[in-house]
Amino acid sequence: MSRQRKSINSVGIWRLNxxxxxxxxxxxxxxxxxxxxxVLNPDFLRNQGDARHVRKVPVAAHRxxxxxxxxEPLAISTPVHSVWVNPQEINVDSVKLPKxxxxxxxxxxxxxxKINSNQNREFIYLKRRVAPETANKVKQLNIAGVALxxxxxxxxxxxxxxxxxxxxxxxxxxxQEGLELTHDAVLTGVSGLKRMIRDSRGNYVGGGExxxxxKHGQNISLSIDLRLQYLTYQALKAxxxxxxxxxxxxxxxxxxxxxxxxxxxxxxFNPNSRRGLRNSEYRNxxxxxxxEPGSTVKPFTVASGLKSGKFTPATIIDTRxxxxxxxxxxxKDFRDYGQxxxxxxxxxxxxxxxxxxxxxxxxEQLWQDFSAFGLAEPTGAYFPGEAxxxxxxxxxxxxxxxxxxxxxxxxxxxxxQLARGYMVLANGGILRPVSFVKVDQPPQGRRVFSRDDxxxxxxxxxxxxxPGGTAQKAAVENYTVAGKTGTVKKAxxxxxxxxxxxxxxxGVIPATQPxxxxxxxxxxxxxxxxxxxxxAAPVFSEVMTGAMRLLNIAPDDLPMTQxxxxxx
Length: 568
What we know:
The chain has 2 domains: about 55-220, Penicillin-binding protein 2a (Domain 2) (Alpha-Beta Complex), CATH 3.90.1310; about 225-270 and about 280-565, Beta-lactamase (3-Layer(aba) Sandwich). The strands form 7 sheets. Strands 2, 3, 4, 5 and 10 form a 5-stranded mixed beta sheet that branches. By secondary structure, the chain is an alpha+beta fold. The protein is about 35% helix and about 20% strand.
């Protein structure tokens, strides 16, 4: 028994020693493994974990705001979310996938095909910039491999009122049209970078380590006065609708600074919803479209005549019998005005008298003077797609070319260029660049005409709005207005159309102390009333009546009774 007991004890001790050896080996092995992981090779598993759960995530920078001159927003960026998916992590057979498709208003089969065809990628968008309530529904579905990414969506509070000036951005928030494109580099921010941890479903855990700071875009204050923009938009739209016109444009400039205070086009578009619109509807016609300005350039012709010294406001020009033959072509007036002064030329808009002034001048002189008003040269506004205009080479002018140039045929201008030309008339002969951005100091200009010549022309233009003139409907109560109408036959194949016109009015207010210059152009008004004095002039009157009140510009033509009371 004792021998048997000794044998059992011997076996027990051996087994115990084996167990001890195994445990000691395990401890040594674990110790070695821990040493290897923590000390010798700590980066391997850390990198493997990071590869599965840590991501460097871009932090979107919001685009700078576009504001009017008084700080009213014209374009702002609002935070939204985009829905994306990791094709390597999502289960395409999940019962939640059709629910996701329904929330996003997408086809479930197309989503499945899109995921299957991008299995080698870790990131694809399902839908960009969804509404907040949609983003919440996606989050509530809690689908592995589906996540939200914060982005910014551009919103335009004024809608179509300032659409052509402000422009718009694409889905990636890059400027595509208008001032969004012009100032894209300033408005665009620089995205930041964060190191974020994802959970088992691919959702990012809050917090994170900032690797690169986000730099948001800068705000831009435009020269646009939103109050005047609304006034101009409403008046122009009403005129275009009333006369069933094809389109229309209007521009208001600050005479002292060259700032664009208002610029509208009809028809317009809503930059917040551009589905179904054509590219042609995006263009800013006031800047990009050229037209023959017609009689609105007669003040330029008169200014050239005064500058030459051959004419004065009182110089008599014989327009009888109301026609003039030049190189086999007949130039006509509305009626026979007889012998009229240069001042009456502008009031009655005589083509014959204007042609005789132009024919009395040298071609080079006439060309230089028209160029001095800014025709056929950049305005300095740097607006995308700005048209240069056209002024023919004087060395190729025929006698007829000079005659027709005098009343606005054979030259092409945009509404903005024409308004700039009237700014020269109004500010005493200084040609300044035009600006869509608010300026603190008037930009440096250059003198192109004498102050006296401009004052004389402006005084003559006042008679256009007075009884007997062609634009009595442009009058503004208690203010003097200097302006000029234009009714231009539209160019057509082989010449000019018989019943298609451009109705124009260009004016300055107050005439005695000019503050604003405005050009109104209505394209192809229908019916018997197509003259500039009937179609375009009332738009000027309506807008400027409101503008004088909004800008608190003092009246300069009060009746004597009111003037006496005001002085008291």
